[in-house]
């Protein structure tokens, strides 16, 4: 009997972890993520690895301070612990998107992985809706264009790929940027005089959704 393919997702951490386990988990993420994701690029509203490392150090200090059983120091420790889980979840989602859910990369991230049957994933993805690029117009700055993308239900963010080659050749498409919201999406640092094609998809809790039709545009 042939087994079904497996789809991989990140585990964001268990709230039942001890403080020591959470510190160790966060340390693995701080070390692992920079090996697979560009930490120098703009992560938008996603916490950076440097911020995660700083919060880890704050939590470690808070754990030590809370040993005095002071009520205010214990409360502060709980608040930092909650924020650490929030940061780990946001960074985890970002890493999944940036790596396109590639298991060979995700296994190096420091996050534990969980696996889903691909058939289950395929059935879930079949219900997801593709966003549409409704327009792309000139921006205020040279090499800048502004696309308008409609919002689709349950999308956590939107991922744009572009190509300056044949849009019918899948290998020509490259990840351009991930946006947290639909609407007017600014695309910067494009080559003046170059013609591009763009496409967009929503990223959902279940995984990436279907692609929109490609949209061709010329940069002035």
- Mind describing the biggest β-sheet? 5 strands, antiparallel
Radius of gyration: 20 Å
Low-confidence stretches: 1-6
| SSE order, one letter for each helix or strand | EHHHHEHEEEEEEEE
So how many helices? 5
The separation of the N and C termini measures: 57 Å
Number of strands: 10
Give the mean pLDDT. 86
Structural class: alpha+beta
Question: Roughly what percent helix?
Answer: 25-40%
Tell me, what's the shape?
elongated
Query: What count of domains describes the coordinates?
Result: 2
Report the β-strand fraction as a percent range: 25-35%
InterPro entries: FN3_dom (IPR003961), FN3_sf (IPR036116)
Organism: Geomesophilobacter sediminis
Protein name: Fibronectin type III domain-containing protein
Walk me through this protein's architecture.
InterPro entries: FN3_dom (IPR003961), FN3_sf (IPR036116). This is Fibronectin type III domain-containing protein. With 220 residues, this protein is of the alpha+beta class. It folds into 2 domains: 114 residues, no CATH class; 90 residues, Immunoglobulins (Immunoglobulin-like). It contains 5 helices and 10 strands. Helix 1 packs antiparallel against helix 2 and helix 2 packs antiparallel against helix 3. The longest helix has 28 residues. It is elongated and about 65 Å long. The chain starts with 5 loop residues before the first strand and ends with a strand. The N terminus is likely disordered.
